[in-house]
Amino acid sequence: MTQTPQRPLRVLAAMSGGVDSAVAAARAAEAGHDVTGVHLALSANPQSFRTGARGCCTIEDSRDARRAADVIGIPFYVWDLAERFREDVVDDFVAEYEAGRTPNPCLRCNEKIKFAALLDKALALGFDAVCTGHYATVVTGPGGARELHRASDMAKDQSYVLGVLDERQLAHAMFPLGDTLTTKDEIRAEAERRGLAVAKKPDSHDICFIADGDTQGFLAKRLGRAEGDIVDESGAKIGSHEGAFGFTIGQRKGLRIGHPAADGKPRYVLDISPVDNTVTVGPAAALDVTALTAIKPRWCGGTAPEGRGTYTAQLRAHGDETPVEAELSDGVLRVTFDAPVRGVAPGQAIVLYDGTRVVGSATIATTERRRTDALAG
């Protein structure tokens, strides 16, 4: 297994205005590639997106990206993908919450925008590859197939949000930071040595298109407030809410339940039912998931695995790996956990790994939980 050869290519570097994408573009240019920088305008009103430490798609970020491109000495453009972003990421985000699911908009952006819309346009214009500042590694496996692997530094690994990339997309992907065994401080120091003003710019966090960070308020404006019941596992009403879309599986804070549980222990969101606008809460032990089904699988750089296999799985962008057995049947992935896991919600992505290699990604549809009465018995 070897790193993908670095012959000179025509490279389109997606520059968010942050330090990672700027250093990635600089490294690609330094390696001898013919690099052009591009910033994606993802909002019809960029000022409505987050700014400063929390942004990645604002006017401020566009200017930072342009200054970085000037220092590197590469051409720079701004491409308007606002309508595509609204349809494929923002509208999808709202629809998923409305259906009682918990989406990952960053993963959807990578799939639909950076490695679909952007890559398609890049290839049409004669570019060979799209370069981003993600921490992941593309290698050439046996037979010449491209594979996606974790970054050399697990603390910065971002392969989870890239697990939706197929073989064609991997063949045109470049991640210059993926094999860097350095800290983020060292990446910033490199940016400073290169004269990039973004060296000290804070990282972006959370959801770029929710300007104030209030996800519940953002959803309420689009879906409308709708009062419903908060019930316990027996179905008894113990509180009320202003929209089931404002909750996620495993949530503990903000439940506004009027009285404590009989055992005095905290309660967590166990289920969200958009049909009757009901939120069910219960003890932490009731969150233990032993198995799940996932739909819309995408096999990262290869074909679907055959038969039942043993893998590790990651369920969140910054989550830990957990051992699983998985099998694909009629397009549905059935996953069984070696030990129960918590905080698993429909709509989230499950990404399977074979060692450091990303096998594929799928969207969680249903979960199976361990019975709490069995635990008490």
Keywords:
five-stranded parallel sheet; 29% strand; single chain; 377 residues; six-stranded antiparallel beta barrel; globular; alpha/beta
Describe this structure in words.
The protein is α/β, with parallel strands linked by helices and 377 residues long. The chain is 24% helix and 29% strand. The protein has helices at 19-30, 59-72, 82-98, 105-124, 167-171, 184-193, 215-223, 372-376; strands at residues 2-3, 10-14, 34-41, 76-80, 129-131, 136-140, 146-150, 173-174, 228-231, 237-241, 268-273, 278-282, 289-299, 309-314, 321-329, 332-341, 349-354, 357-369. Strand 2, helix 1 and strand 3 form a beta-alpha-beta unit. Helix 1 (19-30) packs across helix 6 and helix 3 packs antiparallel against helix 4 (105-124). Residues 1-5 and 373-377 have low confidence and may be disordered.
Describe the secondary-structure layout.
Layout: E1 2-3, E2 10-14, H1 19-30, E3 34-41, H2 59-72, E4 76-80, H3 82-98, H4 105-124, E5 129-131, E6 136-140, E7 146-150, H5 167-171, E8 173-174, H6 184-193, H7 215-223, E9 228-231, E10 237-241, E11 268-273, E12 278-282, E13 289-299, E14 309-314, E15 321-329, E16 332-341, E17 349-354, E18 357-369, H8 372-376
Helix pairs in contact: 1-2, 1-6, 3-4
